[in-house]
Structure formats: structure tokens, C-alpha cells
Design brief:
single chain; 317 residues; hpI Integrase, Chain A; 2 domains; three-stranded antiparallel β-sheet; 4% strand; chromosome partition; cell cycle; Integrase-like_cat_sf
């Protein structure tokens, strides 16, 4: 498949995202996809091409003069196209808004190539805050009982459930990430945080190290968790491991992923009395607002208290 040629300004922006802003390659690809879609749509509108032929549109010739012509109305039209014709959810459209805002902010603020930023007034679609899906203690115990004799997989699950670590963070861990009882985790935007390893993690780690694990056959730093082929684990491999344990345990929790195990860990810690700021540090959230999704537990407990009010019971009689 032939690689799509991008205008230099978009390539410059994508390089800026990873080298200066510290965005991951995955995020960079998402931004590239959004910009490619937007400029194809914009060109289709200008040239009166049907929207269902977007994939064939070449945007390599888009110049800074073309970009200067873009208005807020063009951005609104694109968002309407994403919602109505592509059926994009509010969350997907919100990401596209973030991409456009970031791109126009770069070409105006960093490159000073435009005088007016058309995305300044572009609003983000309202997203209903989803309650995190997590396992309760009974489900988590059943899940762990489904582990076959694999010290590596047991250690991985202990890290998920005790530390609330992200799957990408887990895959990036090296042997050198561990210093005594502390683990250095590299999170989003290459931000480092130090997390304490409790007794369960330490024991699981010792058992894994003493299990005659596969020798690392790659280059560079030795990963903490090695695949059976002697390579660094990938997100996809870890997701498959979680799926297999979910089936073997008989739990069969719908769409159980490593991220759901992170939610489980965070929920358990919050229930056990962790305050929001401590949880924010452990989970590596840049904003405390993200961590506040775990206060849903309080809502559930308050609901239970009100349901158990003697007056409520008396009224039912």
C-alpha cells in the first residue's frame, strides 16, 4: 500500500508532537489520521467532490496559503460530517477537536504562519462521564484463581491489581526500573513517577526471577517481562494473556482488558481509604480531574445508605 504524502507543515507538526511535546507514536498516528481526514474533507468541499470519495484525495499540495483560508465554519462543517456521516461518538469527535486545536495553535503560536487561529472558538463536544468498569473483590479473586502455573503472568497481574499500572507502562519496564522496593514508571509524555512495591509485588517478582525465565534475545536494556520468544512484551500480547485468564477462570467478564484491571486497582485503593491526590500520583494522572472518576464509589455507598434508611424500609411496609 502506497504511503500517503503529507504537506511539510503537517510533517513538521507531527515531529514537534513527539520530540518537543513528548507524545507517544500511537498518539502521533491518531493526530496524523485526524489531520489527513480533515484536509481531505476540506479539499473535497473546495473542489465539490463527494464525501464518500475522500480516500482518493491527495493533500500533498496543501499550502500555508490554503490553510490561511480555513475558517471556524469549515471546522464546524467537518465536525458535522464526522457526527452525521461517519457516526463518530462525542469522545471520537472530542479527539478530533483536540487535534485541530493543537495543530492551529502550533502554526500560529510556534511557527507564526497565520494571524488568526480558526480553532480558537471551536468547542469540544460534551462527553458523558463514564463510570469505570472494574472487578469487585470476589471477581478479582476468581480471576487470579484462573492463572495457570506461570510466575511471569502472575507477577504481571499483581502489578496491574496492586499498582494500577498502564499496559504500555508495564511493557516498557526494564530490570533497571526496580531499585529495592521502588519501581520507576515512565508514563504519558515520558513523565517518570516512583511507585512503592508492596509485599505481594515483591514476592511475585522474586518468584518470577527464580522461575528460570526466558533469556532476553533483543538489544538495549533488558525488559523486566520477557516473552517466550525472548523479546519485550507488547500491549497486544498482554491483552491476550488477560483474555485467556478471564476464560480459564470461568469469570467470563465481558470485554475484560488490562485497562479494566487498572480501574479495578484504583477502585480498590480508593475504597481502602486512598485520597484522590495519592491516587493521582500512583496512577500517573496529570490532572486530578481524571482521578475523580473513582469518586463514583462514594455515590454508590451513599445510595446504599439512603436505601437502608429505616424510614425507607418502614415506608415499603
Amino acid at each position: 500500500m502506497q504511503k500517503t504524502k503529507l504537506p511539510k507543515i503537517i510533517k513538521d507538526f507531527l515531529i514537534y508532537l513527539t520530540t518537543i511535546k513528548g507524545k507517544s507514536q500511537r498518539t502521533r498516528k491518531e493526530y496524523e489520521y485526524d489531520l489527513l481526514l480533515f484536509f481531505r474533507f476540506y479539499k473535497a468541499v473546495q473542489e465539490d467532490v463527494a464525501a464518500d470519495h475522500l480516500a482518493a484525495i491527495d493533500i500533498a499540495s496543501i499550502s500555508i496559503d490554503d490553510i490561511r483560508e480555513i475558517t471556524l465554519e469549515d471546522l464546524y462543517l467537518f465536525m458535522e460530517y464526522c457526527e452525521v456521516q461517519r457516526g463518530n461518538s462525542a469522545a471520537t469527535r472530542a479527539r478530533k477537536v483536540a487535534t485541530l486545536k493543537s495543530f492551529f495553535k502550533y502554526i500560529k503560536g510556534k511557527r507564526r504562519l497565520i494571524e488568526e487561529n480558526p480553532a480558537d472558538e471551536l468547542e469540544t463536544p460534551k462527553i458523558g462521564r463514564k463510570r469505570p468498569i472494574y472487578l469487585n473483590m470476589q471477581e478479582a479473586t476468581q480471576f487470579m484463581d484462573g492463572l495457570q502455573a506461570s510466575p511471569r503472568n502472575y507477577c504481571i497481574m499483581m502489578f496491574f491489581l496492586n499498582l494500577g499500572i498502564r499496559v504500555t507502562e508495564l511493557c516498557q519496564l526494564n530490570k533497571s526500573s526496580i531499585q529495592g522496593r521502588y519501581l520507576t514508571v515512565v508514563g504519558k509524555g515520558n513523565k517518570e513517577r516512583t511507585v512503592y512495591l508492596n509485599d505481594s509485588c515483591i514476592q511475585a517478582l522474586e518468584d518470577y526471577e527464580n522461575s528460570g525465565k526466558t533469556t532476553y534475545k533483543g538489544e538495549g536494556e533488558e525488559p523486566l517481562f520477557v516473552s517466550q520468544k525472548g523479546t519485550r512484551l507488547t500491549r497486544q500480547t498482554v491483552a491476550r494473556i488477560v483474555k485467556r485468564i478471564n476464560q480459564q477462570s470461568g469469570l467470563q467478564k465481558e470485554r475484560l482488558t488490562p485497562h479494566k484491571l487498572r480501574h479495578t486497582s484504583a477502585t480498590m485503593m480508593y475504597k481502602a481509604g486512598a485520597d484522590i491526590r495519592s491516587l493521582q500520583h500512583i496512577l500517573g494522572h496529570s490532572s486530578v480531574a481524571t482521578t475523580q472518576i473513582y469518586t463514583h464509589i462514594e455515590d454508590e455507598q451513599l445510595q446504599q445508605v439512603l436505601d437502608n434508611n429505616p424510614f425507607n424500609t418502614a415506608h415499603k411496609k
